[in-house]
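Reviewers asked in the last cycle whether our approach scales beyond single polypeptides. To address this, we selected a multi-component target totalling 713 residues and predicted its structure end to end. The input consisted of the following lines:
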Amino acid sequence: MPKKTYRQAINEALRQEMERDPRVILMGEDVAGGMGSPGEDDAWGGPLGVTKGLMPRFGRERVLDTPISESAFIGAAVGAAATGLRPVAELMFVDFFGVCFDQIFNQAAKFRYMFGGKAVTPVVIRTMYGAGFRAASQHSQCLYPIFTHIPGLKVALPSNAYEAKGLLIQAIRDDDPVIFFEHKAMYDEEADVPDDPYTIPFGEANVTREGEDVTVIAMGRMVNFANQVADKLAKEKIGVTVVDIRTTSPLDTETILETASETGRVVVVDEAHPRCSMASDIAALVAQERFADLKAPVKMVTAPHAPVPFSPALEDLYIPSPAKIEAAVREVLAFKG
Amino acid sequence: MAEITPVVMPKWGLAMQEGLLAAWHVAPGERIEKGRELCDIETSKIANVFESPASGLLRRILVEPGTTVPVGKLLAVLAEPEVPDSAIDAYVAEFEARFASEAAAAAASAPQPRFVEAGGRKIRILEMGEGGVPLLFVHGFGGDLENWMFNQAELASARRTIALDLPGHGGSSKDPGDGTVPALAEAVAATMHALAIDRAHLVGHSLGGAIALHLALERPQRVASLTLLAPAGLGPEIAMDYIEGFLAQSRARKLRPVLETLVHDPALVTAEMVENVLRAKRMDGAQAALEAIARACFGGGRQRWQARDRLAGLGPPVQVIWGEQDRIVPVAHALGLPAAIPVHRLAGAGHLVHMEKAAEVNALIERFLARAAAVG
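The resulting structure, written as structure tokens, was:
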């Protein structure tokens, strides 16, 4: 099985869907680069090279460099989706959503509902998130809880290259707006990725480790940290189940609740701030539905309620780490009522 | 000069690069016979008993339980008592020195699957070994060429072997035609043609058994012998709970209990094995192809293609092997077959008899092929 990076997996998913379906187009700032100037074509291929090579393959008609105006091109993508195309728009950093949120939450998310199911809005918004890139407070946030809050949007957070390809193809084929979160610190991470296209259904969590003592529920990059902790603790005969929820909306509550009940000790790991986060949402879900099965209070491991620091030393302390997850696992294990 | 026999970490499947030695079943100073349980090995894909590749006196264990070592690493040494310890020391030292330099080369030359164009489809195959009348493996419903990971390398030591992915399965095209046994048999025949194989020994498991049997009935001149492992085609019953569960479940935790009905010992079904099945089902077109095959072969809850009454007149020699604890295709289908057909029922094995009792099945196939060759 060929090894591919997270970046290559996303590029391959886009290319294969563009080959399969002529309605799929790309748009965003510098998704090719060099449009309308005498410089090099495809100079950028996206700010981190994720869409490199797609403009030469499919042409400027289908790979559109847009002006630096998220409100304009996200709105255009939503309109194009409502009128028959299947656009994949790139919101370079999710931190920029503030200038185009109306187009997303009050337009795209509402069309199917307000038009009595007669309209579909098959738009995908790819966006980078996450800390660890030394990119400071305005380019490092994990704002997926805000999108998860909105009915009518679907939200995917691939945790590795295999997941990225399958979830992105699923996103492009989905008839609802999908916000696809790519962690910028993961683009060079490799996994086994099949050459042919495949899809991973939304709303089906993936149990990546199975153990009997503690259940760790995680998403995105945090899944890998949780897996590391599970592997480490397995050597001490501490069994850790790890659940990768894959999509925060729809949310696989069935798998979350089943695995929570099996161990009775739950840690939720979320790189976002703690208030109104996936961590608080899942903790509440478990407490509400499975209180009788719990042997310890649900523990949340999140970033603090503070902006992402620019100081590298502080940024490293800010991000939930394997060490913090391990400490939380030990804490719920030690709880004696 | 008395002989020293090395026992090394086996390579089970394409992806295996290392294995965890979980436990030894034999202690130094004890005798072991070929095919008996030597140790437990776990890989990222599967956990299974490693059956001794040779008979002899276990003189030295070189890998402690709980240790993960690369494929090809020396695990133990068999030698008769007259071989002095000093000779074993020297053998081990030399083996390990050689292993360090050869391991990389061996890994690079490990056989890899490739694709052939056959009957308008892309068919994925894995070839091992050379010479003689080729042996062709045909897997069952929902399987792929890696189902033969305990059999192909072993049987390839004396002949060319080919394992294929049926249409709709593994890496092959997802067009199963009408999904019936004759259509799938046609695809296998086309693959033989594409590989310029005029005549082959066929080993078919489950639905692959029915496909192999169809080939032997319709093209007897192309089939040198037929080994049917828990085959379909010999009776109406089939465990529809399994077929429907296999198709319906897309979460590992739900699919695992379904896959566990394939085996007698559920420990064989690892998380990675379940994950690999799920990954195959997620490939574009796979689910629709599997559903079409299930409808065509098992629609209405019974096997649609049966050839029990045609076995007596069959040209090529046939043997039948079945696990006593098969929960998918009942072992009762092995009763009352024509007397000329040897039937081997293996205790302690479920439907995946070639995985659970690999050494016994491999030995039965070797013996059967030798006899088929003698008869000519």
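Chain A has two domains: 3-192, 206-334. We regard this as preliminary and will revisit it once experimental data from Aim 1 are available.
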